[in-house]
Design goal:
The chain is of the alpha/beta class. Helix content is 39%, strand content 20%. The chain contains 15 helices and 19 strands. The strands form five sheets. It has a seven-stranded mixed β-sheet, with helices on both faces. The protein has a five-stranded mixed β-sheet with strand order 9-8-10-11-12, sandwiched between helices. A hairpin with a 5-residue loop joins strand 15 and strand 16.
Length: 451
């Protein structure tokens, strides 16, 4: 992690620690950096944004910076993160930018950078961006005259992405009643159109973005609204997205949550049955539930565990050519079809399995018995010191001994905030809380908790 860019881009409160000036300077650097590789024609950079009010401010600032250095800025307007990745890779752009703070509240925002393959930008280039923000690398001259770049309305690129998603539908959805919770975010228009094009009866909630209601009691972070809606309206299935639609959580016909772990299990089993599960392996993070691993063991499916973060999952998948992986939060990567997590794609793939196996989602997910999992975030003064303190390591060992092999405890620093995350899994919630408390008490005893 750098000074500005964390595990999922440059994120902060818009107008406070993520400003239009930051965006302008990031645009300047990217315009200059990539134009140097195309001195005759200039660079082409594509930008998408979610529905936050501040996304417009940051979009225009980025475009101004990009064009001021002689590159062209192509605007997809309100769209999803995976659509930016798709367009960047498939239409020859030098770089892609998504303006979003994902599942965060509306007053936060973020700038995510993608390379020409639609993958998250490499650390070396990101560090150059940070150096430019801090004035360490000097400032190139502005372009002038005919060398100034253009801003291009490029909604056609988003439409081609929609067409791509529709083309992936192997079966008609006719006769299926599908509920979609669009979180008042990027998917509000795209997802319903895709499902309707494939023949589903579609009911949509939280698809009236006003710039300030993104993720507000909606979407994958507030799944209870969709659960209630599915049951009350007799839907066959429900899908909830986050603000930029790179995540998806599902709700079965009984109103039960089907999270990222269950999604990976369902699709991995589907691939295994068809002899298409590459390396017979699912790629997860260390946060996946113990129940997933036990269910995969029962099928003879192997699994690899990476550090938290979809980039870590993708990097492992790319290195080993795996075709399914993801996070418990619903950030699922189908590497045959996309270079990043894609919430709408995930929902299409769940529909595919339901239709191919002619079973409801509840039955497909039934073999997984999820262990109770309690995650508590502790705000600390210095997460590095906390993680290296002997007394904290001793507390973790004590909690592990208490679990006696019938669960696990995981303590890790947040990648984006001054937090230490303490997570326990066990046969019951009370045991989880008791194990967490052992570590939290040690943090407090050492005076590591932030006021």
């Amino acid at each position: 992690m750098g000074k500005y860019f964390g595990t999922d881009g440059f994120r902060g409160e818009a107008g406070v620690n993520l400003t239009a000036k930051h965006a302008f300077k990031i645009g300047r650097f990217l315009g200059w950096h990539f134009s140097n590789k195309h001195k005759d024609t200039g660079a082409r950079i594509v930008i998408g944004k979610d529905t936050r009010r501040s996304s417009y401010m940051l979009e225009y600032a980025l475009a101004a910076g990009i064009t001021s250095e002689g590159a062209d800025a192509y605007l997809l307007h309100v769209t999803t993160t995976p659509s930016v990745a798709f367009v960047t890779k498939n239409e020859g752009f030098d770089c892609g930018i998504m303006i979003s703070a994902s599942h965060n509240p509306f007053y936060d925002n973020g700038i995510k950078l993608l390379n020409d393959q639609g993958e998250k930008m490499d650390d070396e280039t990101t560090q150059l961006v940070e150096d430019f923000l801090d004035g360490k690398s000097g400032y190139p001259p502005f372009a002038s005259g005919e060398h100034i770049g253009r801003t291009v309305d490029y909604v056609a690129g988003r439409n081609r992405y929609i067409g791509y998603l529709i083309s992936l539908g192997k079966y008609s959805f006719r006769g299926k009643h599908v509920a979609l919770d669009c979180a008042n975010g990027s998917s509000w228009d795209i997802a319903p159109n895709v499902f309707r094009a494939l023949g589903a009866k579609v009911s949509v909630i939280n698809a009236q973005p006003d710039g300030t209601n993104i993720n507000r009691n909606a979407g994958s972070t507030h799944i209870e609204g969709l659960q209630k809606f599915v049951v009350e309206n007799g839907c066959d299935v429900g899908f909830a997205y986050d603000g930029d639609a790179d995540r998806c959580l599902c709700v079965d016909e009984k109103g039960e949550l089907v999270d990222g772990d269950k999604i990976m299990y369902i699709y991995a089993r589907y691939l295994q049955e068809r002899g298409k599960l590459v390396n017979n392996t699912v790629v997860t993070t260390i946060m996946s539930n113990l129940g997933l691993f036990k269910a995969l063991d029962a099928l003879g499916i192997e699994y690899a565990k990476t550090a938290v973060g979809d980039k870590n999952v993708y990097d492992y998948m790319a290195a080993h050519r795996n075709n399914i992986g993801g996070e418990q939060s619903g950030h699922i990567i189908f590497s045959k079809y996309a270079s990043t997590g894609d919430g709408i794609l995930t929902s299409l793939k769940m529909m595919e399995v339901m239709l191919a196996r002619e079973k409801p989602l509840s039955e497909l997910a039934a073999p997984i018995v999820i262990y109770p999992q309690v995650l508590e975030n502790v705000r600390v003064t210095d997460k590095t010191i906390v993680m290296s303190a002997p007394i904290i390591q001793q507390a973790i060992a004590k909690a592990e001994a208490q679990l006696a092999g019938n669960g696990r405890i995981l303590v890790r620093p947040s990648g984006t905030e001054p937090l230490v995350r303490v997570m326990s899994e066990a046969a019951d919630t009370e045991t989880c809380r008791a194990c967490n408390q052992i570590v939290i008490d040690a943090i407090d005893a050492c005076g590591f908790r932030a006021g």
